[in-house]
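Why do we bother with holo predictions? Because pocket geometry can differ from the apo form. Keep that in mind while you read this record for zinc ion.
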Amino acid sequence: MATMMAARLHAYGQPMTLDRIEVPEPRPTDVLVEVKACGVVPNLARVVSNFFGTLTPDNKMMPPLPAIFGLDPAGVVAKVGSQVFGVRPGERVYVNPARACGSCRMCRSGQPYDCPNWTLQGYFGRSQEIMHAYPYGGLAQFITAPATALVKLPDNLSFEAAARFGYLGTAYAALKKIGVGPGQALLINGISGQLGLNAAQIALAMGSTKILGTGRNQALLDRVKKLSPQRIDVFSVPNAPPGPSDPLVSWAKKATDEHGVDGMIDCLPPGAPASAMMRALFCLRRGGRAVNVGAVMETLPLNAFWMMTNRIGLQGSVWFTTGEGEDMASMAGVGTLDLSILEHRVSPLSKVNEVLAGMDDRNGGFTNFVIDPARLR
Ligand SMILES: [Zn+2]
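The structure, written out:
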């Protein structure tokens, strides 16, 4: 039996250990992928400390232990199951970790993202059964996944850049929901973070002609503006209460002929106050639409009467479909999605605990944390 190395978590709050385990056999509709790069998100440090497990009373959101985490794996197909016809060994792929049960009413209606058992392989989710069926996250040398989860990568897209697809796709799926495109002014709340920077890159690729971005760190904001000085404007937000006299609202109105922005995507990090999201919502024009992919956990002081009279839309969005992943791969392939500004910080599998402990040391969203499972030291 062939074996491989995997970083496994044996107890929440403890470091992962490098364990030698069996290489899994793909089931008939699955593939085996040799992982070449796995993205590591700053939030993983919170996940392995069981922060999210404690949010549900029965603690059923987390994978059974020992667990292999790793949300954003990219690599090469090593083996395909007997019922897989459209994928061949040797193909370069990103593995979309989104799993659904496949047989509930929503899955059978073609809406697997509304499946009550929706789960992220290698992270956490709503189904212990699915986490048991797909226990291999990208912090292992090989993983199994359904063939339907594969995004084929163009030759000019590196595994390291593809390992950023989680953030990119989250932004892409969200921006599609609010109709970003030419002639539209978009506000990205938190533009210099991991998610916000990728939202800016995707919005540029989608043809958005005016992109406004908020942040705190002026040096990082200046770097974001350099992506497209003609189309991007940035604002280091001073403290102020939400409302019509907010300097943020004045700035957004001035940039849009006093209309306000057409769309807003909230990309604020964990710990941001609800007021920071409200201030961005007040930048919307009448009829504007907002989508939340950020991590504000405080309850919003939303005025339903204001929303109604101003025809404001607000919705949540989570992750992205494999088809949306294919869109991103196509955009990267022809260069309309430019990922060259990402600074890949590649570490061996043995350094995963150090990587998780050191993620606060980064150049905002520009730093791309990647583990190469083939490297053990
Ligand atoms: Zn389902």
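The chain has twelve helices and 17 strands.
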